[in-house]
Amino acid sequence: MEDTQPKPATPEPSPAPSPAPSRAPTPAPSPLLDRIVVPAANHVEHLNVNQIQVVVRRCSTPNVTEETTYFIPRNPVVDAGTNTDPPVVCCPLLRRVCPCPPRGLLASLVTKVLLAGVLFGVVWSITEDQCLPGGNLFGITVLFICALIGGKLVAFIRLPKLPPFPPLLGMLLMGFLLRNIPVVTDGVYIDFRWSASLRNIALAVILARAGLGLDPSALRKLKSVCIRVACGPCIIEACTVAVVSHFLMGLPWVWGFILGFVLGAVSPAVVVPSMLLLQKDGYGVEQGIPTLLMAAGSFDDILAITGFTTCLGMAFATGSTWYNLLRGVLEVAGGLVAGILLGFLIQYFPSADQKHIVMKRSFLVLGLSVFAVFGSGVAGFPGSGGLCTLVLAFLAGLGWGTEKERVEEVVGWAWDVFQPLLFGLIGAEIRISQLEGHTVGLGIASLLIALLVRILFTFVCVFCAGFNMKEKVFIALAWMPKATVQAAIGSTALDMARTKNDTQLQKYGMDVLTVAVLSILLTAPVGALIIGLSGPLLLQKPKNSACGTAAGGEDDNETPVTYESTL
To answer: How buried is 434 (Cβ within 10 angstroms: 0-12 exposed, 13-18 middle, 19+ buried)?
Structure first.
């Protein structure tokens, strides 16, 4: 009789070797040893389709029966660790390059294509024809992608010991090509209202970045030389352009000053990377030249934008000259008051104890900036919106202290989206078929004359600042590139003229935009090359490690400060 309950028994020698009960068999040359052993009779094991179950009963004593279950694979070549068939690899090289399922770069590419396809399907199901060729959304999407590609291609152009070319050139050229290739122009269509709205949003974003990036300590650290470099060349160039364009291009005086303030701003997008490269190598650091130019860039741009918005309000106002002058002053005062009120408001709301405070502050800054730019136009005071945005962003950042850096990061993400749109749309506004040869020629002549006057006056502004002759020449040459502000405000006058349905005003606005685009194409790459080539020749490397103080500083023991413009 056999007991139903198995009892432990002492193993005895047997002619046939019995494998030790083990979950993982020990590999051996014999195929029978390459198996999984289940020591208990009542143990349930799921079989693989390629396994055979064998049950062996053996009576070790009269009252005990020992039962062992073997799982023998059909294929003798198995994985000893998992008791499964090894994967069949027809081409190991192909499997490494293209794994299944995909991973790495291939999986990322497939995921992005899938997301883009789902997004297109959702938007198409809502807007229908707007997502198809000839629709606004299709045109904006194609322009955005092409502008990104153009920026990446230009960024890949690297010359030894020279600063990189600004990606905005590639974005601008891509928009220009999309507008002037006959077959592409018909499919990539963007209504001028959509284009104007997107450019105004980009303008609001860039003004918010400029306001947040201002550091009040810059004026205290850099003393009077910063004020002279930031204000003097901008005002002189604006006046020069106004006079020259009035007599050469036939622009009215107020439109001449609009063009002058558009061209009067220097581009930190070109100056700052070039200065950082020279500062890294130590050129001019002991004299504080990179610090001076990077700090003065933001103030120069704000002065140009303020003058532009004031003249813009006067150009579209109706009434006598004295009334228009008074209206310009009122717009400036109104923008300041509104910016101060809104800036103090978002200093304290949301309060510091709330959750997700960074996102709330970022939303308020961007939302109020866009509202100020658009709302001022609706209210009939277009010149006050830009100044209001600058003031509210500056005061908000001043109240937040070091916490404003996280808000700046979020606003920077918004700029990363709207920068390709801004430069692409600016380039798309230029049509070769509508350009007049004498307008382009006179515009280039006006630009060159204004640049010459600007360089000479910048050289004068840095007298009595402690710089030698070579350093003065470098500062004058480095203070000429134009790009970001020209793209942001260059088309604003044309957009407003289109809303008035006035042919003559539209012609003036197109002249301003054409000269602004020419200034970007001519001065941005040439300025970057001049800074990169002349810097090592004209600037000195530091003689000691205690360098980097601001030019004109009175205390040599002050902590070095480096100012980077967020434009």
So the answer is: exposed
With beta carbons less than 8 A apart as the criterion, state whether 441 and 240 touch: no
In contact, 152 and 507? CB cutoff 8 Å: no
Is residue 479 classed as helix, strand or coil in its secondary structure?
Answer: coil
Which distant-in-sequence residues (6+ apart) come within 8 Å of 392 by Cβ? 211, 338, 339, 340, 342, 343, 346, 365, 368, 369, 372
Residue 276 has pLDDT above 80, yes or no: no
pLDDT of residue 555: 42
Closest residue by Cα to residue 561 from 300, 290, 302? 290
* pLDDT class of 82 with cuts at 50, 70, 90: low
Residue 44 predicted with pLDDT over 80: no
For the whole model, what pTM was predicted? 0.70
CB distance 373 to 338 below 8 Å: no
**CA 245 to CA 240: how far, in whole Å?**
8
* DSSP secondary structure, 482-535, as one string: --HHHHHHTTHHHHHHHHHT-HHHHHHHHHHHHHHHHHHHHHHHHHHHHHHHHH
Best CA proximity match to 436, nearest among 361, 495, 514, 552: 514
Average pLDDT, the chain: 79
Q: Per-residue pLDDT tens for 83-121?
A: 555 555 556 666 666 667 777 788 888 898 999 889 888
**Alpha-carbon distance 296 to 275, whole Å?**
12
Q: Are 261 and 318 in contact (CB under 8 A)?
A: no
Picking from 438, 491, 509, the residue whose alpha carbon sits closest to that of residue 254 is 509
